[in-house]
Amino acid sequence: MEIMSLEKELSGNTYPGRGILIGKSADGKYAVTAYFIMGRSENSRNRIFVEDGEGIRTQAYDPAKMTDPELVIYAPVRVLGNKTIVTNGDQTDTIYEQMDRQQTFEQALRTREFEPDAPNYTPRISGILHIENGNYNYAMSILKSSDGNPAACSRFTFAYGNPLPGEARFIHTYLGDGDPLPSFEGEPKRVAIDGGADELAGLIWENLNEDNKVSLFVRFIDIATGAYETRIINKHQQL
Question: What gap in Å lies between CA 32 and CA 38, rounded to an integer?
């Protein structure tokens, strides 16, 4: 697969929806992940990311304007020992709870399917980073309707061992804007990454559509020590 420009992938799409990026820093020292959310409705845009223990959660920026929290309030990031879980919904909790009971990432996601938001049937996208004894691997998943038919759920898991420095995989919920919104297709995109947490956060944020972007999370995890640094950008807190 050809390596793509993350900048072009983001700037060329007005509505990728929610996105997960996982890879390894160019210097090979850090496991890297990023998660962003976008919104078209007032309810979806009325959100910020806040830190919650070692993870994050979404929170209403203005609680008085929150009309339906079901699919917009959740914990996108949780940490279970040496595993960091990143998802676009409450399946974060499913993965955390099932893996805490010795189930696998894939087994946990077999209990879930796409979101019940007809007619979009938004895919559930998930990732997990595993760092142990100086070794690092990760996996990504997408659960989606069968070409828009909610009668069937298609499940895809992609596993990446010994990731190469300066590369990441990028998956997002939608191919672009539309009505209904078209679901992501194919395997996660191979993209180049460079620089540290500030550089990556800046690149992603600057290239997301200005009208639709809502919040961004970026984390760099030291593969040798497990220590991490986090960046959070919320559009509401920039206004």
Answer: 21
